Structures are given as structure tokens and as C-alpha cells.
Amino acid sequence: MELIISNSSDVPIYEQIKEQIKTKIVTGELKAGVILPSIRTLAKDLRCSVITTKNAYEELEKEGYVYSIPSKGFYVSDISREIAREEQLNKIEALIDTAVEIAKLNNIEKKTIEQMLDILYEEDQ
Amino acid sequence: MENILEVKNLNKKYDNFELKNVGFNLPKGMIMGFIGENGAGKTTTIKAILNIINNYSGKVKMFGLDNTKDEQKIKEDIGAVLDDMFFSEILTPKDIDKIMKGIYKNWDSVMFNNYLKEFSLPNNKVIKTFSRGMRKKLEIVTALSHHPKLLILDEPTSGLDPVARSEVIDIFQDFIQDDDCSILLSSHITTDLERIADYITFINDGEIVLSKTCDELLEQYGIVKCGEKEFKKIDKKDYIKYKKNAHEYDVLIENKKEFKKKYNVQVIDKITLDDLMVLMIKGVK
Lengths: 125, 285
Fold this sequence. Notes:
By secondary structure, chain A is mainly alpha-helical. Chain A has helices at residues 13-26, 39-46, 50-62, 81-105, 110-124, and strands spanning 66-69, 73-76.
């Protein structure tokens, strides 16, 4: 499992772990029923503290992405892709919402924003 | 969570320094970083925990046992590295192996020799010829080789270059793969601790200032950077300490989120353990 953790990011390390594992579950890279590395192994591999990885896993569990079996470990839940996609879409909507708000406040046309989106999408390809 | 180490109300008086009601708990399976400036009481606390100084009061429990009454039982399960070298300069690692075999029931010669190889420490050269870094590594390796459950390390990474420090930290993380094992380590190289420590305990002038999970600390605490006008608007109870610099005020706050709700300030930096120490010690209220 590839995880890329930045030390200098403003995003706390547990959140980086959480989000990246989530993405892997949503995209199907991590399949339902697969066991995740133990919190201690992951902490050692990422060179972070045990509490950090524990927090990440516990939050993933709360949100339903993984489930735990005591003294065995954490497993990927059989989360319906639709639900996961829905959540990602909600997130995107919230961000666009902010963008639109700023645009309206400054009388920036919808067209300009659309152009921006086009450029950003092309950049990634 | 069960505690592997409990320290309660430690007091010790020297002529010009005292430990004042030092107390904290270290849960099983965790690493605690013990920070504070030189002379703040880190070493004295560690020596009291190990029961190698006299005339202190308070209670120390390890594995649920008392550190004085059950000293013999406890020592089997502790690995310690102190700041001052405790090996004679004329010994070789080979001699140490022999000596330790006589001291610890669980001494593991194979493990010890593997570590020596891993760290390129020559088996048959006297310690006198070792560099500072090599000595430190030898001490750490020795502390680990009787399968202790609790490692107590005073400045284990001081004198080590970044590569050696990274090797040592790998070993520490290997050590706590067993969730019955814990580490208490004092250090002033705080970048090492920021990453691997589960808990941070901060001692200043003989008193514990805070003892928290490292994640909580780094996430919640912050430094507000502002001008005099903005600073004057901040309520005294909303910051811990501040420091006036040439061009700005650095204000240490306990909860970034709450602060943002209440005040409109431009810059709130995330904190490092170094910042925390400097502001706690040099800052004023």
C-alpha cells in the first residue's frame, strides 16, 4: 500500500493517512475484506507515532470505510462505491460553493470560472 | 489503557534546584518524549525513576510495582541509557557481552552481536578508541539486548549524526512493535520526537508544564504572529505566553480553532516543539 505523507503539510499526518486510504478504498485499489497493516507496522513504516495511525484507523472506522476485529486488526469494509462517490461529490460541491461565492462577490463571470476549470483539468492530463 | 510507568509527586531538593511534584503516566506500547531545557530536571527525574539517586520523595510504579521495594524484579525488565557513559574505557564490546551475561537472566548474546554488526561496532576494540557516536550506539544496543519491556533513555540521540539518529529511531520503532513495550526518552532534538513520540511531557524549572499526546499538541497549539495593536486586543486568558520581537509579537495559544472563532488575526502558524519550548521558557504572560 503506497502512502505519501508530507511532514511540512498543514494537514495533520493522521488526516493524510485517512484521506489516502479512503481514496484507495473508493477507487477499488483496496478491496473489501482486505486487512490493513497493523497500527504499529504502519507507524514504523511511515515513521510516525502509534497514536497517529490509530487515530487514522479509528476515524476510518467511524466513517464506515473499515471495520475492526479485536486483536486481529482493521479490514476494508464492503462500502458501496456509490456511497463513497457521493461523499466525494459532496466535498467537491462544498469547495465549488466557496469558489462561486468569491466569484459572485467580485463580479467574476461564470465563463471565467469555466475556463479555469478547463485549464486545471488539462494540466492534470 | 494500562500504564507501564506511573510517576507521582516526585520531589527532590538540591542547593539551587528542586523537582516540584513531578508526575506523569506512560501507557503501554507508547513512546514518550521528555523535553525541557538543560537543567530543567529531566536527568534528575529519570534518575529518581531508576532509583539511582537518594533522598527523593514521591511514588514511582513500573509494571505496577514499586521502584524501591521491587527494584530487583523491575530492573530485569528495564533498559536504560544515561547521559554519562557507564562503561569503563578499557572494556571491549566483547567484555561487555560477558559481563552482561552475568547480570541479566535474559541477556541475548546473539541479539547483541547482531546489533554490533548492524552498527559497525568492532567487537574487540576498547571503548577508549570509540567516537562519541559509537559509544552512544553501544550503550543503546546494550540496553536493548536483555529484552526489556521499558526503555528509559536520557538524550539517546545526542552526539549522533542524522544517519545514525535515523538508524536508532528505526530500532526504537521496532522495539514498540510489541505492544507491551514502551519508551521514555529525553531529548532536545525535538524533530526526532515530533514524528515518533506518542506523548510529550515538558518539564521546566523542575515542574511538569504539560503532558499530552503529541498529535493533540501539534494540532491544537499555535503561534499567532501579530502587531502591537492586534496583540492588545487579545484577552489575557486566551493565550499562554507571548514574546515581543523586533517587528512582531509571537503569541502562544492553546487552541487554534477556538482562537480563530474569536479573533480576526492574519497569521497563526503551526507549532513545532522547539517553538513551544522557547515560548514557554522565554515568553511572558
